[in-house]
């Protein structure tokens, strides 16, 4: 039974060569993301994870904002190289923005003060699980995707993104995933040995 799932997670890869096309209708993209948000686990079932799908001109608007912010003060060769990458991220069919709701995290920390310091870490675990679920599901639909933090988006940029898309001020950005039908297969991936990364003890 687990073979199908394991095959699916092996298919998920980072792909930067995206086209402005989708292999599935927008309704399917929405259904996938909704299902992932609903079913992915969160610590104490706080349901702190958020996802926002942006498509077409809204996606272009998002990446124009990110590019403007990311290119501030970057000159010469570095600017051209960065611009090229940003153009590729924004050149897909859409993006999924992932957030964690700080208000939810704060409220569970108040309810369970003995664990307060752990909730921010568990919240980043939760958004990672959600990102993986969406990324894998998209791969199964023939969509390429990658995960962008752009060296962590500035607070000012995230505030602008929230304002532009009418998102609550308590939503903390955790990653942005551009996606689209791939123009080329992903780059080769090297795998180190599994031995130091996994152990089993059995009597
Ligand atoms: C937590 C996390 C953060 C990442 N951040 C970025 C990023 O900001 N930019 C990027 O291009 N890739 C990012 N990646 C993608 C990794 O570089 C990529 O997953 C890794 O090289 C393995 O390749 P694969 O995704 O094809 O398996 C991130 C991946 C993870 C899990």
UniProtKB/TrEMBL annotation:
It is found in: Cytoplasm; Nucleus. GO terms for biological process: cellular response to oxidative stress. Its main location: cytoplasm. GO terms for cellular component: cytoplasm; nucleus. Coiled coil: none annotated. InterPro entries: Frm2/Hbn1, Nitroreductase, Nitroreductase-like. Residues 9-180 form the Nitroreductase domain. It comes from the Eukaryota. SUPFAM superfamilies: FMN-dependent nitroreductase-like (SSF55469). This is Nitroreductase. It comes from Mycena belliarum.
């Amino acid at each position: 039974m687990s073979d199908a799932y394991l095959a699916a997670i092996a298919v998920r890869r980072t792909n930067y060569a995206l086209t402005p096309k989708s292999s599935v209708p927008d309704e399917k993209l929405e259904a996938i993301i909704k299902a992932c948000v609903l079913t992915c686990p969160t610590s104490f079932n706080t349901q702190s994870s958020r996802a926002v799908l942006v498509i077409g001109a809204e996606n272009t608007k998002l990446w124009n904002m990110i590019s403007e912010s990311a290119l501030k003060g970057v000159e010469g060769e570095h600017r051209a190289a960065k611009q090229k990458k940003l153009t590729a991220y924004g050149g897909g069919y859409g993006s999924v923005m992932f957030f964690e709701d700080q208000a939810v995290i704060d409220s569970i920390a108040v309810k369970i003060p003995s664990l307060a310091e752990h909730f921010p870490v568990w919240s980043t675990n939760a958004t990672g699980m959600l990102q993986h679920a969406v990324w894998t599901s998209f791969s199964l639909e023939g969509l390429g995707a990658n995960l962008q933090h752009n060296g962590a988006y500035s607070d000012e940029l995230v505030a602008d993104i929230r304002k532009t898309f009418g998102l609550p001020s308590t939503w903390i950005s955790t990653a942005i995933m551009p996606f689209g039908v791939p123009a080329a297969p992903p780059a080769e991936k090297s795998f180190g040995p599994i031995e130091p990364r996994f152990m089993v003890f059995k009597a």
